């Protein structure tokens, strides 16, 4: 009966349509007959399963269907259709936790056990070795702990052993894994805490196709594998030695990951004879020497990551074959010491979606033909010695999401035609010598989220193009020659978290615009504080990542870490500071120093997220801004060289920031003895900020700051004379 069912259904297409009614009739007849459509669960197995269930925590009620005797209705179970014995148990991702009872080991007909993605916390039960029919066992992504029990070597029929993602699974990789089963095809021990070497027996285990030992603490010299593997992941361990040729896998190996080890020597050309290879990751090792021109991978290779090594010499002219249908999708040669020009032939890699060549010593111009690579989504050529201008043809890469050309010697102007890049999210041109204005047409780059034009030779006023970047999160135009007013729309982007206009020639008033719109400025994100250390303003970090999933599908992502802050320092701004700025609860950083701002500063109490405030070197007057005792995160405060006056009692909390008031001659600060100390001359000017500072990137900032402080201390005498002051101010303009 059962066999009929199968043979009727399978050759479905062979039947003509007129057979269909007959077929349906057959099916109906079969199912209405009192045969074993369903088999009752074996009562012994049922009792074992209920005992198991009674001891696991099941907050999501995943096992609530485990009632009655109908095996098909018990979730995760498959029973043998004649005997009702449990042959497969699949409890993956059911939010179960607690211990796995040894009772489970009496399900003696079990062939598949999948407990993955739960929260079981116990050693792997020794008695699993009794389940001699098991073909696959998957305990991945739980919290199993201890060692792999030797009893498992009795599982002679095992094809798959998957134990990855149990951080407390430790000890040596047992030697018997190489010869206990003659069927073992898949061994996944990744992301555990195994140490020691790869047992020799594994190198000769013939049926093995899939070996993942990545992300453990394994060591030893790399050896060659004797079987034909499909997947080999040894990444993120401490393997040393040189790269083996893996010639036994020349026709089979798809994925080879040896990244993040201590592999030395050159890249042997024999790895290019791995004909089936689609993913090769050798990044984060100590590979060195030039790449041989004979190292040319097949057109099957999709991902090549050789980044973060000590490779040198010219970039390879041809690294992989290409055909119309396939070729490299991702090429990462960044963080090496490649020199010379970017070879033109790189523009023949037509399928390329991501090109990372940053942090090398590349010279010459960006090849114009890069615009032929119309699938490119990411170009990162940053931190090289490239010169010339940004080629106009780059607009051919119309699908670009990220263009990073920062830290080079690029000159020329920004082409108005770049507006064709309307998907662009990240545009980093900082630290070059680019001049001219921001073209109005860049309004067309509507998707921009991250724009860094800092440290160039850009000039002109801020035009309305920027107002169209409605998704902008980070905007830096610092250290250029921009002038004109700070427009009042500047702070009105919903997603904005960093605005840096420092070191320009912006003048006029800071418009009292609408500061209420930015979510980041206004809402204090408590989670953020613990997640990320405070990054001082210039230390923005954006990390682009691209994952190739299918044969040509990829997914783009980027992580931005930057301070929630506003920096308008070192400009020519006049007038009062708008009150609205002092109501921003989310703001971590505010720097308005080195301007000509005057007027009073209201209390800072509302700025509960504040970590650094610098209003120094202005002409601010009146009382100091209220009580700062409640601002627990404030680590850096500088109100020096203004004209604050009055008396600062100890209880206002400023004692945490010695020196913060230097150069305010009319100010009295209460000392521990209760006396009043005038702040005309700072006691130890350079030292003043070190006390409040912990560590990390901020210390660089503090260094610069203290440098400025001592520098100004040096010329404070000069400033006393009105003539010199005018002279110096004139120079600054
Ligand atoms: C998993 O269980 C926890 C309690 O242990 C519960 O808070 C959570 O919502 C559950 N998750 C799912 C997806 O059911
Ligand atoms: C057993 O359960 C399955 C699925 O829940 C259902 O289709 C079937 O009718 C049930 N059989 C009996 C005899 O209750
Ligand atoms: C019942 O089991 C037999 C042997 O295990 C198998 O060949 C057959 O396909 C099964 N029938 C169903 C309906 O699962
Ligand atoms: C195991 O269960 C999960 C979740 O219920 C399901 O997605 C998956 O397809 C099952 N796997 C097998 C091999 O039956
Ligand atoms: C696993 O359980 C531990 C406590 O036993 C709990 O802290 C943790 O959040 C749980 N993890 C998941 C993914 O449910
Ligand atoms: C266990 O189940 C998960 C989810 O269905 C699946 O991805 C995994 O391949 C299964 N493990 C085995 C060994 O079949
Ligand atoms: C596996 O090999 C070891 C020695 O290398 C041997 O002692 C053991 O008997 C072998 N086990 C099996 C199941 O062949
Ligand atoms: C990794 O192994 C080395 C010895 O090989 C040991 O010193 C180190 O503590 C281990 N690290 C971890 C995280 O277990
Ligand atoms: C490299 O491996 C170490 C552990 O061995 C891990 O902590 C680190 O995150 C890995 N680095 C990368 C870039 O994957
Ligand atoms: C290569 O491995 C490194 C280290 O684990 C990882 O950070 C990187 O994302 C991998 N490269 C690719 C293209 O997946
Ligand atoms: C590549 O670019 C060059 C110059 O930009 C152009 O002449 C050539 O036709 C392009 N080739 C293809 C295949 O698009
Ligand atoms: C900066 O731009 C100006 C024109 O705006 C030009 O005269 C000057 O030479 C440029 N400086 C550098 C270093 O490129």
Descriptive overview:
Among the domains are: about 485-525 and about 565-695, Leucine-rich repeat, LRR (right-handed beta-alpha superhelix) (Alpha-Beta Horseshoe); about 705-730, no CATH class. A hairpin with a 5-residue loop joins strand 47 and strand 48 (about 675-680). The chain has a 23-stranded mixed β-sheet, with no helix packed on it. The chain has an 8-stranded parallel β-sheet with strand order 29-31-33-35-39-41-43-45, with no helix packed on it. Strands 9-11-13-15-17 form a 5-stranded parallel β-sheet, with no helix packed on it. Helices cover about 10% and strands about 25% of the residues. It is globular. It contains 8 helices and 48 strands. The protein has about 725 residues and is an alpha/beta fold. Mean pLDDT is about 85; it is low at about 1-35 and about 680-733. Bound molecules: 2-acetamido-2-deoxy-beta-D-glucopyranose (12 copies).
- The low-confidence parts are 1-36, 681-733
Distance between the termini: 95 Å
Instruction: Kindly provide the name of the CATH class of one domain.
Output: Alpha Beta
Shape: globular
Largest sheet: 23 strands, mixed
Beta-strand residue percentage: 15-25%
Each distinct ligand = 2-acetamido-2-deoxy-beta-D-glucopyranose
